[in-house]
Structures are given as structure tokens and as C-alpha cells.
Design goal:
The complex is a heterodimer of chains A (134) and B (82).
Chain A: E1 2-8, H1 10-18, E2 27-33, E3 41-42, H2 44-49, E4 56-61, E5 70-81, E6 90-101, E7 109-111, H3 113-116, E8 120-124, E9 129-133
Chain B: H1 4-17, E1 24-28, E2 31-36, H2 39-50, E3 56-59, E4 66-68, E5 74-75, H3 78-81
Classes of the chains: A mainly beta (134), B alpha+beta (82).
Chain lengths: 134, 82
């Protein structure tokens, strides 16, 4: 698990500003690193809090869908993974995420391989820690 | 349903879009606006042109990409919710 910050994407924030509308508050959320997820997913409660609408749709396969993919709405958001000390955070100013119910599992997001591909992720099981470098 | 018209436009015009395979197409209503190499550029153009109105950004692909999840999750779609 790790903490990350989600907001509306930068282009949407600029559109809101141009329309004289307030920016929705950023959301501090908990994410589970999931190498079995090909894209990052966020719970709809977070997306509703950001006041955003879908800007895409994609096909998804999970263990319950069998061989037939199902549609999932996608949203453009900004994701920031903070870094400790003077290190630079990982910033994805515009990234597409899938809407997926997760909150009942105890976290708000799955951090998938679309973000992990830009990181160095190591899991030390015997020492019970992981590192995520970016 | 969100983006219903835009998705219908994408499906109807997919044969014409094939030459742009891999690029991201921006669609507003029944209008195919433009194509972009990067997803970020397509999203930015969408908000620049259409402000807060609905628009669709989709990667052009004859065989649509499928996202895989090994975890049991419930993907949400406004289509199924409608």
C-alpha cells in the first residue's frame, strides 16, 4: 500500500478556471500496488468527489468476466506519488484510469503497470518491505 | 449513457480511422475532430475546444485493446448502469 494524491487533470482544471468554476479538492487516497493490473483503477467515490465525467471507455477482463471482456468507463486525472526528503515526486499530469469499485477492499486505487512501467519496483518478501523508485 | 453518441461515431467511422491506427482520436458528438500521438495531447485539445462538454478520447485500434486484471474487481460502466 502507498499514499497518493489524485486531482482532476491539469487540462480540466484549466477549463474549470476558464469557466469560472471552483477546482474540486484534491483527494489523498490509499493505493495497492498491483502488478496484475494492466492499468490503474480508482474507486468511483474518489471520481465523484473530483466532479469529473468519463472521457473514454475501454474493455476489461477480470477473473469474473471469463473470456468475454466488459466495458469500463475511463477518466482523465492527475496522479502524484509523493517522495520522501528532497526527492522528486512521481507526477502523471494526465493519465487515464478505470472506474472500479475498490473501497470495500480497504483501499481507493490499484496502482497498475501503466504507472509501474516508469518505476523500479522491488519486493523483499523475507524482509517484509518493498521499494518503489522513480 | 455518457459518451453514447461519441462511441457510436467511433464505431461507425472506424473503417475510415484505420489509417490512424495507434493514435488517439478526439470525438465530439458525431464529429471526428483530430488525431494525436499522445493521450495527453488529445485530452488537452478536448478541453481547449469543448471546455466542460462531454468528449471522447480513444486509441484507434482495429482490434480493441483489453486491460487485464488478475484481481477480482468490478469495473464500472455508465452503459451497464443505465
Amino acid at each position: 500500500m502507498l499514499d497518493m494524491v489524485v486531482s482532476a487533470s491539469m487540462p480540466r482544471l484549466m477549463a474549470l478556471q476558464a469557466a469560472g468554476q471552483p477546482s474540486p479538492p484534491i483527494q489523498n487516497i490509499r493505493a495497492l500496488i498491483d502488478t496484475g493490473a494492466s492499468c490503474t483503477c480508482i474507486d468511483p467515490t474518489v471520481l465523484v468527489a473530483l466532479g469529473i465525467q468519463p472521457t473514454g471507455k475501454t474493455l476489461v477482463i477480470t477473473p469474473s468476466t471469463g473470456a468475454t471482456p466488459v466495458d469500463a468507463d475511463t477518466y482523465d486525472v492527475c496522479i502524484v506519488i509523493p517522495a520522501s526528503g528532497n526527492q522528486q515526486p512521481l507526477v502523471k499530469a494526465v493519465i487515464s484510469v478505470c472506474a472500479t469499485e475498490l473501497i470495500h477492499q480497504g483501499y481507493h486505487a490499484l496502482l497498475g503497470r501503466d504507472i509501474l512501467k516508469d518505476c523500479h519496483f522491488t519486493y523483499n518478501g523475507s524482509a517484509e518491505f518493498f521499494t518503489l523508485a522513480y | 449513457m455518457a459518451l453514447e453518441k461519441e462511441l457510436a461515431t467511433y464505431k461507425a467511422k472506424l473503417p475510415d480511422l484505420k489509417e490512424h491506427q495507434g493514435k488517439f482520436v478526439l470525438i465530439h458528438g458525431d464529429e471526428v475532430v483530430d488525431y494525436y500521438v499522445a493521450y495527453e495531447d488529445a485530452i488537452k485539445a478536448g478541453y481547449d475546444k469543448f471546455k466542460l462538454e462531454p468528449f471522447l478520447v480513444k486509441q484507434v485500434s482495429v482490434t480493441e485493446a483489453v486491460h487485464q486484471f488478475t484481481r477480482q474487481i468490478i469495473p464500472l460502466s455508465s452503459e451497464r448502469a443505465a
